[in-house]
Amino acid sequence: MSEKLALVTGGSRGIGKACALKLAQAGYDVVINYAGNTEAATKTVEEIKALGVEAEAYRFDISNQSEVDENIARIVEKYGRIDILVNNAGITRDDLFIRMDSEKWNAVINTNLNSAFYVSKPVVKVMMKQRSGAIVNMASIVGVYGNIGQANYCAAKAGLIGFTKSLAKELGSRNIRVNAIAPGFIETDMTKDLGNTEEFLKLIPLKRMGKPEDIAAAVKFLAVDSTYVTGQVLEVDGGLVI
Ligand code: NAP
């Protein structure tokens, strides 16, 4: 077992999986969380272990506070510390605002924003005792600039940015850094049905969609390499918004 632990929510697939592998390469034991796809989570755990560190997957719904509390307590009891938290898991329930019902609104706010409160709360207590830690919140470029059909998602991601800056101010004196990443269009299951890719590509100076690994590199920079960066929102979008 390594002396350092990283916890990545939604670490079984997509961006979270790439982050989990990147942090494992940096020597961290990694706990991933996921919602329901046990096959993907099991495969990811095997890939992480192949890098020579410990790995485990915990299935719980990050939008359910009691499930979060119970599972973080199990993780802390087993590993005794949490050095990095990546609040990554998220969903979309897109619709034009005029058609958006409260089910879509609440699902996205609960899973993408309230979850960060639920998960960070017990983790920050551990980090405060350690007097060290790094949190990276997975926001989105649309949380900064807005997007048609995503009022719920943009509100949640904008909320995460305010959450990031506030925690950075509150926790800096305990040597806990808190930053956010705002990805652009990244190739994952979340974006596979977007369609109209050619139109998006015209808007991106680097002329390609991002890969999960592009985001993972930025997560590692913020969580591991940087020592004097906190409260920042790093836009990783191929230059989509300049
Ligand atoms: P993804 O491929 O759809 O993967 C989502 C991950 O989150 C899966 O591991 C999933 O678990 C987990 N998850 C979903 N709901 C959960 C819940 N209630 N409790 C626990 N785990 C849950 O998504 P992605 O594209 O990698 O996105 C990751 C993050 O980046 C999200 O916050 C997203 O908003 C953000 N982001 C993505 C893009 C993009 O272009 N892809 C752009 C900007 C921001 P299961 O496998 O069990 O379902």
Layout of SSEs?
Blueprint lengths: L4 E4 L5 H12 L3 E6 L3 H12 L5 E5 L5 H15 L4 E4 L14 H29 L2 E6 L2 H5 L5 H21 L4 E8 L13 H7 L8 H14 L7 E4 L6
Parallel strand pairs: 1-2, 1-4, 2-3, 4-5, 5-6, 6-7
Helix pairs in contact: 1-2, 1-8, 3-4, 4-6
Tell me about this structure.
The structure is a single chain. With 242 residues, this protein is an alpha/beta fold. The protein has one domain (5-236): NAD(P)-binding Rossmann-like Domain (Rossmann fold, 3-Layer(aba) Sandwich), CATH 3.40.50. 48% of the residues lie in helices and 15% in strands. The protein has 8 helices and 7 strands. Strands 3-2-1-4-5-6-7 form a 7-stranded parallel sheet, with helices on both faces. The longest helix has 29 residues, at 102-130. The model has no long low-confidence stretch (mean pLDDT 97). Bound molecules: NADP nicotinamide-adenine-dinucleotide phosphate (NAP).
Structure, briefly:
The protein is of the alpha/beta class. The chain is built from eight helices and seven strands; from the N terminus they run βαβαβαβαβααβααβ.
Parts with pLDDT < 50 across at least 5 consecutive residues: none
Rg over CA atoms: 17 Å
Output the CATH class name.
Alpha Beta
Bound molecules: NADP nicotinamide-adenine-dinucleotide phosphate
Name the helicity range.
40-55%
The coarse silhouette is globular
For CATH, the homologous superfamily is named as NAD(P)-binding Rossmann-like Domain
Q: And the CATH topology? A: Rossmann fold
The major sheet is characterized as: 7 strands, parallel
Number of strands: 7
